Amino acid sequence: MQVMKNTGSGIRFTAAFVLYLGFLLIHSSAPAQEYSDSLAKGNSTRAYIEEVDTVISLKFNFNTEYEQFEIKGDNFYYDIRPNISLSNKLSFSYRFISLGIGFTPRFLPGNNDDDYQGKTKSFSLGFNFYSSHWLQEVQLNYLSGFYLHNTEDYPPFPGWTEADPKILFPDLKVARLSGSTGYKLNRNFSIKSISSRTEIQLRSCGSFIPLLNYDYYEIDNESENNVQASSQKSNNLQITASVG
């Protein structure tokens, strides 16, 4: 009886130990499976994208982009432009963030003929953020000083020729705040390989990217000059959706 009692206790102990060991194996297999799945996803992403996160990427661009106004009517057309022919933008990128500063050097040809087309001041500041899925871009632009490009259609005085100064709007100021928010469905597609060069696209692929774009303009031509008979200030907000 004593032996049978000890044997039954050993059987119960062995069964309990087996159940406990099985519980530990089952319980520990979930994190292991999650880690394996995560590693597989990581390997999948690394098969398409190589991160260049140990260097700072610098870009220096020349461009001819600027704010321009066209006012049209039945009997008139005004083409109003800033005195800018070439502007620069310096961008700094590191990992997932980029910062850009734009300016207009006065020494460049076409930017310094102030007596003919007036003096223009410009400045821009941009910020970009890219994660594995989200895209965010924000940019601020400021311009002051414009001229009437088609002054020949409305000569300011009799005998005016194209060698004379254009009609100037020195107090016209334009501020623009623009942005774009997007979601990249395919994480294997690298936006940074195109924009900031902080990643390398190892294998070709694409992605559906819905975008929400927004622009806020503030236009002001108020002047302290008493000769100016009228002035106005206007605000405009524009929101659009697009697909990339």
- Specify the oligomeric state: single chain
**Strand segment count:** 12
Please provide the ordered H/E string of secondary-structure elements. Answer: HEEEEEEHEEEHEEE
- Runs in which pLDDT lies below 50 for 5 or more consecutive residues are 1-11, 23-40
Q: Given the C-alpha coordinates, what overall shape results?
A: elongated
Helix content: 10-25%
Largest sheet: 10 strands, antiparallel
Query: What is the total domain count?
Result: 2
What's the tally of helices?
Answer: 3
Strand content: 35-45%
Distance, first to last CA: 82 Å
Class from secondary-structure proportions? alpha+beta
Mean pLDDT: 79
How large, in whole angstroms, is the Cα Rg? 32 Å
Describe this structure as you would to a colleague:
By secondary structure, this protein is α+β, with helices and mostly antiparallel strands. The protein folds into two domains: 1-51; 54-243, no CATH class. It is built from three helices and twelve strands. It has helices at 2-48, 114-117, 192-195, and strands spanning 49-51, 57-63, 69-72, 77-82, 87-94, 97-103, 121-130, 134-148, 168-183, 199-201, 210-220, 233-243. Strands 2, 3, 4, 5, 6, 7, 8, 9, 11 and 12 form a ten-stranded antiparallel β-sheet that branches. A two-stranded antiparallel ribbon has the order 1-10. Strand 3 (69-72) and strand 4 form a beta hairpin. The longest helix is centred in the N-terminal third of the chain and has 47 residues, at 2-48. It is elongated.
